[in-house]
Amino acid sequence: MRLAARILFIVVGAIALGFVFYKVIGPVGYWYELNFAQSDDDLGRAYMVALAVQLAALIVGGWLGDRLFRRWRRKQADRA
Asked: Which InterPro entries match (predicted)?
């Protein structure tokens, strides 16, 4: 049960932070495309940066989910 809850916290944290960054990256990419991109190479580079940011957001979200799980378990242990 503890392992399943920990995995659930990690997955939910990663998905939540990944979704937030996905919603932020979309408008920023559109703005960059309209105002600064001069060639397909610029767009490809921006796409790769967006993928790297998304990957970092998933990793950090999983880490935050794990931290939240540990805090939750500590509070449960204090009550007992």
From this structure: MFS_trans_sf
